[in-house]
C-alpha cells in the first residue's frame, strides 16, 4: 500500500509535483498518465526517494523518510525508463544485482539469492539467457531482463517509468500481459507512468491523470480517458471509441475533422 | 530449479592462476635481473637460509646478500605495491565515476603531490630534502588537493553527482599545476630534479619506502575489495544504485577515499607514473570481459606484475643509467594495448 499526503517536489524553485494526495491499495495496477512535463516521472522518483520532497509518503504504513535505503529497496523496486545495461554484464549477473538490498554492503550472494534470481529469470522465460551478455540482447529482451531484476528484488511494489516506451506493439502487449500475470501471481502493486492511453486503459485498473504536478482526474480508465479530458489536459483532438468493453483512443486530424 | 547455475563471474580459478603466474614471473625476473647476476638456485638457497630452514646455508657472498635483500627484493616489493595500487585505484575510479578514462589522478592527487614535491625540492635545505621529507610533502600535497576537490564539489549549488566532483577535480588540478609550474620557474635550478620525480621512478632505498607505503596499500585494498560487488551496482548509475538499496554517497566516499589515499602514498614514493591505472584495468577487461568484482582483484595483481617488469626495463635497458618509469610504462604499455584493442571483441 502506498499513501501520499500533500507531496510536493520543487525542482529549480518550481513545483513539479504539487500537493499530491493519493492512496494505492495492495495489488492494484495504477497507470500514471498526463502530458509531457506533468510530473509523472518526478512523482515516481519521489516515491522511490530519489528526489527530495515535502509532505509524506508511506509504504505499508511506514514513512519512507524513516526507512534505510536497503529497507526501502526491499519494499519497492524501480524499473527506470532508460535503465543502464552494461553490455559486458551477463543476464545472470544483472539479475543478481537485484538481490543487493538483501545483502550487506560487504556480503556475497548466497544460494538463496541465486535461487531468487533463477526464479525471476524463469518467470520471464530467460533462464537459458543467463550467460548471455546484455550487449547481445534486443530491446524487448533487455526490457524483460530489467523486469526480472526488479522481480529478483522481491519487493511488493514495483514502479515502472514508461515500461513499454522502446517496444513495438507486439512486445508492448507481451510486456504488459506479463506484468499483469506477475501482479496477480505475486500480489504485486504496480504503478506505471504510461503514454499509450489505449494500452494503459486495457491493463490498468485505475488511472491517475497528472497535469502540471496536480491530480486532475482519478478513477477507472473509462472515467479518466475521455475526449473532454484529453482535449483539456493534452490539448489533443481525439475520439475515444468503445470497442468490446475496451476503449480506443483515436487521434483526429484537424484538417480532416470538418469533412 | 536450476538455482545454482545463475552466477556472477567472480575471480575464476583460471583467471586467478593466470594473474598469479604473471606476478610470479615478474617478481622472479625482477629479483634475478640486474647488473650483478644472481642465479635462481643461489637466490632460493639464500631465501631458504633466511627462513632458517635446517641444513641450508646461503651460497651468496655478503655483498651479494646485501644486493639481494637490501636492494633488489625491496625494490621489487615497492614496484609491486605501487603498480598494484595504481591499477586498483584506476579500476575503482572507472567504476565509481562510470568513466572509462578515469585514472587515479582524476581528483587532483597528481597535481597536489607534484606541488608538494616541487616545494620540497625547491625550498627545503639539501639535507632534509632527500628521501625523508619529499614523500611526506608529496603525500600532504596530494591529500590537500583531494580534500579541496571534495570541498569545491560539495559547495556546488547543483546536483552533487559524480560529474560535479570530476569537474571540481579538474579545477583544483589546474590550480595546483599552475602553482607548481610557478614554483618550478622561480627555482629553475631544480628543474631536472622535479622533472625526474614527475616522470616517476622506483627508488632503491631499501625497505623504508616499502614500510611507508604498505599500510596505505593494505587498507585501501581491503576497503576496495570488500566493496567490489557494490562497484558493479554503482556502475548502473546513482539513481539505480540508490533504488537497489545502496547508500551511494557513503559508498562512493569510502571507495574514493581508499583509492585516493593509496594513490597518494604510491605517488609520494614513486612519483607520477602514468598509464598503469588506465591501461591495466582496460587490458584485463578487453581480454576477459569481466565485471568489477573480478576486475578489481585482477587489476591489483596484474598491475603489480606490470610495474615490476617495467621497472626491470627502466633500470637495465640503459644501465647504469635509469629510464624514467613513466616513459617505460607508456613505451611498452601503449603498443601492447593497441594490440589488445585490435585483437579483441568483447569488453566495455
Describe the structure in your own words.
The complex is a heterodimer of chains A (259) and B (348). Chain A has 259 residues and is of the alpha/beta class. Chain A has nine helices and twelve strands. Chain A has one domain: Rossmann fold, CATH 3.40.50. In chain A, strands 6-7-8-3-9-10 form a six-stranded mixed β-sheet, sandwiched between helices. Chain B has one domain: ABC transporter involved in vitamin B12 uptake, BtuC (Orthogonal Bundle), CATH 1.10.3470.10. Chain B has 14 helices and no strands. In chain B, helix 12 packs parallel to helix 14. The longest helix of chain B is centred in the N-terminal third of the chain and has 35 residues. Chain B is globular. Chains A and B meet through helix 2, strand 6, helix 3 and helix 4 of A and helix 9 and helix 10 of B.
Order of helices and strands of chain B: HHHHHHHHHHHHHH
Strand order of the largest sheet of chain A: 6-7-8-3-9-10
Terminal CA distance of chain A reads: 49 Å
Proportion of beta-strand residues of chain A: 25-35%
What spatial form of chain A do the alpha-carbon principal axes imply? globular
- Find the CATH topology of chain A: Rossmann fold
Task: Summarize the amount of helix of chain B as a percent range.
Answer: over 70%
Mean pLDDT of chain B: 87
CATH topology descriptor of chain B: ABC transporter involved in vitamin B12 uptake, BtuC
- The gross shape of chain B turns out to be globular
* Helix and strand run of chain A: EEEHEEHEHHHEHEHEEHHEE
Main beta sheet of chain A: 6 strands, mixed
List the chains of the largest interface with their residue counts.
A-B, 47 and 34 residues
